[in-house]
C-alpha cells in the first residue's frame, strides 16, 4: 500500500479522501491556496503545503507546482478527487514521468472519453446504445442543416470537448440552427480551447441515469448499480438518489451490462461512471466520467462499499475483492448538494461568512462537509458547502428522513439551496418519482412558491437561533484569553524548572 497520498483538491472531497487514507493507514498531504489557508481540510491532513495565489490556474490547476509538492513531501501517489485536474490527461503524464502513481485511469482513456465525438464512436463500436447524430464535428452550415433534417427536429448542438452542460443548445427549427452552431462554437473555443461541435437528436424529457463502475488492473470489471440524477439546473445536478425510482432488476441487468461492456472495451481502470439518457423504455450512452463522482456517497450507502478506498486499492495494483454477484442494493438513498447559492435568483452564487452553523444528525444521516462556524466561503471556487445524504429502507423513508435532516440543518450568513431542496421534497411529482432532466423548469412556479413559504418559516427559526450562536468577536476574545492563560502557565512551569 502507498505510504503517502497527496490530495490535489480542496473542501469536502479532500476530507473524504483523507478519511479513506486514515482507514488504510496511509498519510495524507493537503495543498491549499491563500484563499483556503483556514479551510478545515488543511487541518485534517497529516501535512499541508501552500500553493499561493488563489486563482485556480495558479493553484489547483498548476500541475508543475503540485508535482513539486508531491516530490518534496515524499508522496508516492496523487488523488485528484473531482473537478480541477481530475480529468486532465497531462496530470497522469507528469505523474508517470516523476514516478508518482495517479489514482485514476490512464491519460489515454481520459483523453478519449473526454472528447464526446470520440467517446460516442467508441461506444458504438462496443455495442453500447448511442443517440442518433453526427459521427464527427460539423462546420459547414448547409451540411449541418441536411444532417438535422435527416435526424429530425428537435436536435441539440454540443461542444465535443465540453462538459457540465456548457455551450449546449437545443434547436427546434431550422432557422435557429445557424445561431446555435455559432454560439456553441464560440463558447466551446473560450471554455475548452476547441471549437468542434456536433449534432444529435434531442430527447425532450429524458431521465439521467448513471452506473458506477469499478475496474482493476487485472481485467476485472463490475458495476455498483445505478443512480438517478435527473434533478438538474443548467445541466448540473442538484439532487441524486440511488437506485432510480424506475429501476427494475431486469433493466438494471441490461444497463449494467452495457456499462461494464463500455469500461471493458476501452480498457478502463479505477472508479468511473457511465452516464445514460433513458427515454420511453430505451437508454443511450451520454458520457463517461473518468473520476469519482460528487454523488458517490449514495452508492456507498446502498451497497456498503467504500468507493474511495477501492480506488486507492486498485491504483495500488490490488484485485477487486468483489464480483458482480456480491453487489446488492439495500434500501434507498438521497443526496442533496448544499450550495452557497440563491435559488430564488437563478441560483446565483452567494459566497460569504457563515455566522451560524448546526449540522443535522440521527439515524440514517450522513454529512460530507468542509465548512464550520465563522468560515468564509471563498469567491474563487465552486459554491458547494456540503453534501447531505440520507438512507431509508424505502424511497419514502429516505424522503422523510431527508426532510427531517434538512429541517435540522442551520446555515446562517449566506443563502443556500436548502429551501430549494425542501421544496423539491414536497413536490407531488418528485414524490411519485415522475422525473426528467427538465423537472425544475417544468415545475418552477410551484417550486418557487413553496420555497418562498419555506424561507419565511426558516427566517422565524433563524431569528430565534441567532442568539444561541456566539459572535465571532466574542469567540476571538475567548481564544485570545485562553492562549494568554496557556502561555502564562507554560512560562510559570519554565520558571520553576
Automatic annotation (TrEMBL):
SUPFAM superfamilies: Glutathione synthetase ATP-binding domain-like, PreATP-grasp domain, Rudiment single hybrid motif. GO terms for molecular function: acetyl-CoA carboxylase activity; ATP binding; biotin carboxylase activity; metal ion binding. It comes from the Archaea. It holds the Pfam family Biotin_carb_C. Residues 120-316 form the ATP-grasp domain. The keyword Transmembrane helix does not apply. This is Biotin carboxylase. The lineage of its organism: Archaea, Methanobacteriati, Methanobacteriota, Methanomada group, Methanobacteria. The gene is accC.
